[in-house]
Amino acid sequence: MKPLTVASRPALRAGCRLSPASNPESLLLIPEGALRLHGPSRKILELCDGQRSVDEITIELGQTFPSADRERMGAEVTGFLQRLQEKGAIELL
Fold it and tell me: Which of 9, 43, 44, 93 has the fewest CB atoms nearer than 10 Å to its CB?
């Protein structure tokens, strides 16, 4: 497994997808089940298109949440994506 860095370009793995936006509960659907998404986690995953780097995702989130501390946000985004990578929900392109 590749290590996640700020230059990594994460994308959802084949077989994983987000629940429809119209669904009252935000979920990441994975082959083994579903993960509930809280806070900005859905927005993070919507930005995981294999084109944006982790750093670019953090910058875009900073524009959506301008009062958030960028350094803390970067650490939280990286930690969240690392956990999803360990679960096999994302891959690094």
Answer: 93
